[in-house]
Amino acid sequence: MFKQILAVAWSLAIGLVLTACSTSPSHYPKNTAQQVTSSISPMPIEEAKVQGTSQSQILTSIDFLKSQTGWVSTMNNQLLKTRDGGRSWAHVAIPDAPIQKLDFVNEQTGWAVVVQFPPNGSQDTTFEILHTIDGGSDWTTQWTHNGPTNWNGQIQLYFSNNQHGYALIENQLLSTSDGGDHWNTLSVKDGFQVASISFISQSAGWIAGYEPNDSGNPNNPNSDLEVFQTIDSGQHWDNSMGSISIAGTQHWMGISFSDASNGWLFDKDSSDLAGKLFHTTDGGMSWSQIQDSLFSGRIYPSRVEFSNANDGYITFDSGASPLAGGVAVTHDGGSSFVLIGKDQAWSMKDLAVLSKAEAWAINDVSASLLHTTDGGTTWTQVYPALEPTRGLTFLTDEIGFGIGTRENANAIVQTNDGGVHWQEVSVLPVGKEVQALSFTDQLHGDAAVVDQNSSTEILYQTNDGGHSWTQISQNVLPASTDPKSNNQGGLFDHTELRFFDQSHAIMTVKTFPAVELLNTADGGRSWSLVQETQIKPGSWWQINFSSADHGWMLTTSDTNVSLQSLDKTGAWQLVWSGPGWGSGLVFSSSQVGWMLLDTNPLKEPQFVLLNTTDGGKNWSETDFPQSFHLNFIPGTDGIKMAAAGKTLWILSVDGLLKSTDGGLTWVYQ
Q1: Predicted pLDDT of residue 222
Q2: pLDDT value at position 16?
Q3: Of the residues 25, 439, 478, 549, which has the maximum number of CB atoms within 10 A of its CB?
């Protein structure tokens, strides 16, 4: 009977026609009397209250004094401070512009470089050095410079104490001996461009850079790579390396000394894109090249940092997409490296090394702060707090499961407190993209997974709460029986999965240009194709079942929304239609459900939440504030919603929101 109902229901849904309406109303109509038989009376519109802020922020720089105390800056002019190793963060607003580099010498005293990038039509960028003596609550400007940005110009800060420090800003080398009240420009050699600095004390340090060796001839762009050393705070500089002729006109260089003897210089140019690593064991008197093609290609280094003669890191950003960056780790002085995070497409922006074992790094792609305590072998997301990124499902208002983290799209996470805290319970293999989860109780669950190598749908099953998974079936979706479809078990764009017990389930799969509906009665070991529907290009759809007998379909086409419900005869009945764009759908029972809609899809998005307590016959409407935005999760065809009783969750790119009053009040988790 279950199969027959689904087959009838899906076939009746094919012929629905959406009603054309205005595309940018101030609010959705409460009824469309000419199309639905139920009476939908107007309800008062309330504005939802959203508490807290999204944790989806771009991180720019980090600095840690010790394991427990550190700072992270963000692109939206925020400084985050932790005193407990990242478990909690205090937020402080920063004046002027985003911080690009941080350096603290104690919990109260620190410096920052902020950069105001030029508006359209302007050629100059404003650079400033700021100073704080109260842990970052207040800042004063000590130095300002206007000029063009340099492709390979690094920003570096180093303070040995609260008086002596150095700054490298767009090839300008600066020093101070009075805490930054006065900054002096250090001159090294005419024509020499400083690219990177490394100091081990207030008086001893090294700088690396290059000097064009034939600047008058554009057909000979070679340069001379040089390293200089100072032992008197930059008053005098000795050329400790001599010079090496290197090809290319644009270079990235990073130099790092772990002590007075051991140093490393990494150079990567724009011509052959091969990374060259040099090493010295005598303070720079002599150098040897130990790598000549280290991580070649269009991934670019961002930091070089060695904690001792053996252990070091080179961080890489992702460069030309889709190439992946990561953290290159060595434990033999640079003779060999392992690139961590390549499979997760990491792109590393900044690095803070505390010891041989401990380091912190910013992943620019996921906008997250990572932490290692085992020398770089494993990394843990510290900020923002762990939460799902691609999907979620809740059994009760406390127990739920989610798909993905910022660092690993294949992770399975679990919560026991309604989404306040999450823990990673397992990670499915690389190349297996988890698209949907369904749990029947706290131990038994299923995951619909796409094998990216074979483009087939696989069902995995767990009996221990997601800690381990067993493959139940492969090639779940049969080849298309519709001659108009190009699907032969091909690439899957989107999947919905719902198990009603450990035997019976439905699965809806979007394989452009069709939507497939399947069911199973043997726990997912075999699946039957119930119906295949051709879909209009650009259409959006979402199906949600609260039980085997109660289902709803929300579709959008040409900025018109249609909601249909499954009646007792197995037919779909149109219960609501209007202008806009459907963004989410969830029912917690046969009577209680929510729709998330964008009322202004062609302009600035404005979301409203519709709630029903009678299975969709009547709806009340709640507006989100005008300044509130939700963004679709890439690759998932929408914003994810989950419900348990009156508790509601919304997951978007901006983070996880929770409401315990049916959608009137929301809190970022």
Answers
A1: 65
A2: 26
A3: 439
| Burial status of residue 404 (CB atoms within 10 A of its CB: 0-12, 13-18, 19 or more) | buried
State pTM to two decimals: 0.81
Other CB atoms closer than 10 Å to residue 339's CB: what's the count? 18
Burial 238-277 (b: 16+ CB within 10 A, else e): eebbeebebebeebbbbbbbbeeebbbbbbbbbeebbbbb
Can you give the pLDDT at residue 150? Answer: 67
DSSP summary character for residue 331: S
Give, as one character, the DSSP assignment of residue 6: H
Residue 220 CB neighbour total at 10 angstroms: 11
CA distance 565 to 336: 61
Q: How many CB atoms lie within 10 A of CB 615?
A: 19
Greatest CA separation found in the chain? 90
Q: Count other Cβ atoms within 10 Å, centred on residue 416.
A: 14
Q: Can you give the pLDDT at residue 31?
A: 36
Residue 87 neighbours by CB under 8 Å, 6+ apart: none
| Three-class secondary structure of residue 596 per DSSP | strand
Give the integer Cα–Cα distance in Å for 392 and 194.
Answer: 50
What span, in angstroms and rounded, lies between the C-alpha atoms of 127 and 111? 13
What b-and-e string marks burial along 107-142, b requiring 16 or more CB atoms within 10 Å of the CB? eebbbbbbbeeeeeeeeebbbbbbbbeebbeebeeb
- Integer angstrom CA distances of residue 467 from 118, 269, 382, 425, 471: 50, 45, 21, 5, 14
Tokens 């038989």 appear where? 37
pLDDT at position 462 is 97
Q: Are 583 and 596 in contact (CB under 8 A)?
A: yes
Query: Which strand (E) or helix (H) includes residue 399?
Result: none
Predicted confidence at residue 94, as pLDDT, reads 78
Cα(first)–Cα(last) distance of the chain, in Å? 41
Q: What CA dihedral angle connects 527, 532, 538 and 540, to 10 degrees? A: -60
| Cis, peptide link before residue 513, omega less than 30° from 0 | yes
HSE-CB of 123 using CA atoms within 13 angstroms: 2
Q: What is the pLDDT of residue 5?
A: 38
Contact (CB, 8 A) for 437 and 447: yes
Residues of the chain under the 50 pLDDT cut: 1-44, 216-220, 479-492
Closest CA to 43 of 57, 62, 30, 56: 30
